[in-house]
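Saturday, quiet lab. Running sequence design on the structure tokens for the scaffold JK sent over.
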């Protein structure tokens, strides 16, 4: 019983020490733990551009509303420009902050650089092929 109480107190005490990375968007820069890591442009409310500071890697985040279904059928399309890969998601409506958090948590972005070997796994995890289900005229 003493071991269980000790483990419980230990885990509660150390959980405060573990912190997620703090992400902040300020002056068209993405700060990760107070360090400039990425740049972004959200001047168009339907399209957000996120890129590395040297502009070698770019992601487009598009909010698409075809007008069909609940909430106008809103979904997001994320495009990895240099890799010529993309995916669509309706379950996760990615905001710029959610997208950056997910990219960091899934180690697609590590030390302010893109790990291209992780992009396919990220796409597979979140892709819902929404565009394939739309009826086109």
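Result came back. Writing it out in full:
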């Amino acid at each position: 019983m003493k071991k269980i109480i000790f483990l419980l107190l230990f885990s509660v005490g150390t959980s405060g020490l573990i912190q997620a990375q703090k992400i902040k968007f300020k002056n068209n820069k993405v700060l990760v733990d107070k360090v400039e890591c990425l740049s972004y442009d959200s001047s168009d409310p339907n399209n957000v551009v996120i890129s590395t500071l040297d502009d070698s890697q770019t992601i487009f985040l598009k909010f698409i509303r075809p007008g069909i279904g609940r909430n106008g059928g809103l979904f997001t399309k994320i495009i990895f420009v240099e890799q010529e890969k993309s995916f669509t998601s309706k379950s996760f409506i990615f905001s710029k902050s959610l997208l950056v958090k997910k990219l960091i948590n899934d180690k697609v972005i590590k030390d302010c650089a893109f790990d291209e070997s992780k992009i396919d796994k990220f796409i597979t995890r979140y892709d819902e092929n929404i565009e394939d289900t739309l009826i086109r005229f």
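Notes for JK: The longest strand covers residues 35-44. The chain is about 25% helix and 35% strand. Ask whether to fix the surface positions before the next round.
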